């Protein structure tokens, strides 16, 4: 090659006639298009939900629902969380707030709403799972859920869930679609859930925790408690025990809650140090340890169904 000849590009573009094929392959790759597991999906913008959500009617004989909110130093979000529950005006609600002894004014917020609460506690505890367990122990409602102190329920969610459970006695646990919001209550993403698959649940947790509700009978069958040794994967550990107890899950066609992302959450360093070992331990326990390639193979059909539904929702063909 002559000394003055141009060097070949290290990453030359493919021939033009191959570009459509590459594009189709990219679009068909669910890992590339999936929103599940992704929190920051777009720039912050105002979030809206259908007006009909707030008009959801309660069943004639509403079953009791207990919600426990564990909290520690989340005063900036706690009242928003509590109002999202109390403003549902659900007539058979048992709402319990368990604060781990915050020093940021959380106790004063809880006290302002004390008369509307089924129970509350402010003082040291053994962590998130311990607070939730002790909160549930103060209740007897047949439908259960917990809502972290920075997340919110969407209007009408309790009435909607109660009606579904009444009409479907064969279902043990339900969850719905998720809105992702930031610290200023602006939307940064959405999760449109495909139908539930136990096979996928055993290898990965895509269930939006703030939208999850279950029957107390299932809670009792699965051990009646969250694992207090878990710091990150406590919800997945509970879901795996639910599945092991024969739970019948159903994804409801509705946005039920909003998950908040903000700077005070657990860091990526905490995830590497604590969260990842917990996930690996749970996969070992479930007998689903596998290579990254195998994991993608197992979850690919599930993610394709998610991508398809998300696309139809964006087009307005599916209404949630």
Report on the structure:
The chain is 37% helix and 17% strand. The chain is an alpha/beta fold. Strands 1, 2, 3, 4, 5, 6, 7, 8 and 9 form a 9-stranded mixed sheet that branches. The protein starts with 18 loop residues before the first helix and ends in a 5-residue tail after the last helix. Mean pLDDT is 90; it is low at 1-19.
Cα(first) to Cα(last) distance is 63 Å
Number of strands: 9
- Report mean pLDDT, rounded to a whole number: 90
Share of helix, binned: 25-40%
Proportion in β-strands: 15-25%
Report the uncertain regions.
Answer: 1-19
Q: Count the helices. How many?
A: 11
Produce a short descriptive summary:
With 320 residues, this protein is an alpha/beta fold. Helices cover 37% and strands 17% of the residues.
């Amino acid at each position: 090659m002559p000394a003055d000849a141009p060097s070949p590009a290290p990453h030359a573009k493919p021939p033009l006639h191959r570009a459509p094929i590459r594009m189709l392959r990219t679009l068909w790759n669910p890992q590339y298009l999936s929103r599940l597991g992704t929190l920051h999906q777009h720039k912050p913008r105002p979030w809206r939900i259908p007006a009909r959500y707030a008009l959801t009617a309660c069943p004639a004989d509403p079953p009791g629902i207990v919600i426990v909110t564990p909290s520690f130093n989340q005063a900036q979000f706690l009242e928003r969380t509590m109002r999202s529950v109390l403003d549902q005006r659900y007539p058979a609600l048992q709402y319990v707030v368990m604060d781990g002894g915050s020093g940021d004014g959380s106790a004063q917020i809880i006290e302002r709403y004390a008369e509307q609460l089924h129970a509350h506690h402010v003082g040291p505890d053994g962590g998130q799972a311990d607070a939730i367990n002790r909160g549930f122990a103060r209740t007897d409602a047949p439908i259960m859920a917990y809502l972290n102190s920075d997340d919110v329920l969407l209007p009408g969610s309790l009435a909607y869930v109660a009606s579904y459970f009444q009409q479907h006695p064969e279902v043990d646990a339900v969850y719905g679609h998720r809105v992702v919001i930031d610290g200023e209550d602006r939307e940064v993403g959405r999760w449109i859930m495909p139908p539930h698959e136990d096979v996928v649940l055993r290898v990965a947790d895509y269930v939006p925790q703030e939208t999850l509700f279950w029957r107390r009978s299932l809670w009792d069958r699965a051990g009646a408690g969250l694992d207090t040794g878990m710091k990150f994967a406590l919800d997945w550990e509970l879901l795996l025990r639910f599945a092991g107890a024969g739970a019948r899950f159903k994804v409801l066609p509705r946005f039920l809650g909003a998950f908040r992302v903000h700077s005070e959450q657990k860091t990526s360093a905490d995830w590497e140090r604590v969260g990842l070992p917990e996930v690996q331990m749970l996969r070992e326990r479930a007998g689903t340890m596998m290579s990254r390639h195998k994991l993608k193979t197992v979850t690919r059909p599930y993610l394709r169904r998610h991508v398809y539904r998300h696309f139809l929702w964006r087009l307005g063909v599916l209404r949630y």
